[in-house]
Design brief:
Helix content: over 70%
Number of helices: 14
Largest sheet: none
Strand content: under 5%
Order of helices and strands: HHHHHHHHHHHHHH
Structural class: mainly alpha
Number of strands: 0
Distance between the termini: 49 Å
Length: 363
């Protein structure tokens, strides 16, 4: 086999083979990095999350829909008890008002049912109230961005007018994804802020409020679809970069192995081959350490994980919001369960990104 034939390996490489080949290398290097990584306390991460606007919103979302799911479970428990014994619901207030200790001894099961129904009712009322307040709180956190979005749209309109209102200008400025998303976000923000003003009793028109909620859901649906599409594209690009990095790493290892074998037979090589080998050995481009390579691979791996969390969050939002947009008849709690999944996914991503930021600052 000639020098050129030995240097070039044209066999096709599958992604699975590359991942299997460098699995130990990547994760052993990751363990080395973690052993020297700065320690970040969970309290520090929580502090940063709570102080950020996104952290407040995600935390409130998780808390709200956790309450909604628990409230649904409590409500179903109460309904089952009442279904078993209809008289419990009818007389529980009267029994609790005139409750005597001897009644608990004579009818322990009935009194226990009455207590569960009473406590369930109280919990449902308080949990529903707290859930409504958390929802309003999240509206308040999002409030106030519409003037800036209107200003951006106005600047684009002014630019369109300045360039002569030609078909090519309109197509260039408005018929693209960024402009469409700007209009959708403005529509969603205006509806969102008007809904908040209704909740704060600044204005009162129930029919218009219902229409606004529907419009808000539709615009949010479109925004979710755009975001989901972009994340899927970003995921493919990130995987491709990682795949290329693995190929590059494999080529480097093969080159190093070839260099070692050529060193053993260097005396029989031509001057040109000796010069090529000397340039290869002294090239800075081939002197990357395992730590640098594993660091870049770790960045790709972390980026892919974060994109998966985004896709999970957007998918949950899409399913939950679609039930509203299409007025689908779904089991109670469907919206709350998927919204909770969305909130947890977003909070997990925020936790990981905050931890990594703190680790970089502490280095």
């Amino acid at each position: 086999m000639s020098f050129t034939e030995e240097w070039v390996d044209e066999r096709p490489i599958s992604h699975k083979k590359l991942v299997d080949e460098f699995y130990d290398f990547e994760y052993k290097s990751e363990d080395k990095q973690q052993s020297i990584a700065p320690i970040v306390r969970a309290l520090d991460i929580i502090k940063v999350i709570i102080e950020s606007l996104a952290g407040k919103d995600k935390s409130a979302k998780v808390l709200k829909y956790t309450l909604d799911v628990i409230n649904l479970f409590v409500q179903r428990t109460r309904e089952n008890i009442v279904r078993w014994d209809p008289q419990v619901l009818t007389y529980y207030k009267k029994v609790l008002k005139d409750l005597k200790w001897w009644m608990m001894l004579r009818h322990p099961i009935t009194i226990a049912k009455i207590w569960v129904v009473a406590m369930s009712r109280n919990f449902e009322i308080k949990a529903s109230y707290l859930s409504q307040q958390l929802s309003t709180y999240r509206y308040i956190l999002r409030f106030g961005s519409s003037p800036f979005q209107v200003l951006n749209i106005w600047k684009k309109l002014a630019q369109t007018y300045k360039e002569g209102l030609t078909a090519s200008c309109i197509h260039k400025l408005w018929f693209n994804e960024d402009s469409i998303r700007e209009v959708i976000n403005l529509h969603n923000t205006v509806c969102d802020e008007l809904v908040l003003l209704y909740k704060l009793k600044v204005w009162d028109h129930k029919d218009f409020y219902n229409w606004l909620e529907k419009q808000e859901a539709i615009s949010w649906e479109a925004d979710i679809l755009f975001s989901l599409k972009n994340k899927l594209i970003e995921l493919q690009e990130m995987k491709q970069k990682r795949y290329e990095m693995l190929i590059d790493l494999r080529a480097r290892r093969q080159a190093l192995e070839l260099s070692k074998s050529l060193h053993r037979s260097r005396e029989n090589m031509s001057p040109i081959h000796n010069q090529l080998l000397h340039e290869f050995d002294n090239s800075d481009d081939w002197r990357r350490t395992e730590l640098e390579i594993s660091s870049q691979l770790e960045e790709y791996r972390h980026g892919i994980s974060m994109i998966y969390l985004d896709i999970m969050r957007l998918s949950c939002d899409l399913i939950a919001n679609t039930t509203d947009v299409l007025n689908m008849r779904v089991p109670r709690g469907t919206y709350a369960v998927f919204s909770l999944g969305s909130g947890l996914s977003g909070l997990m991503k925020l936790w990981h990104t905050t931890r990594m930021d703190l680790e970089r600052k502490n280095k």
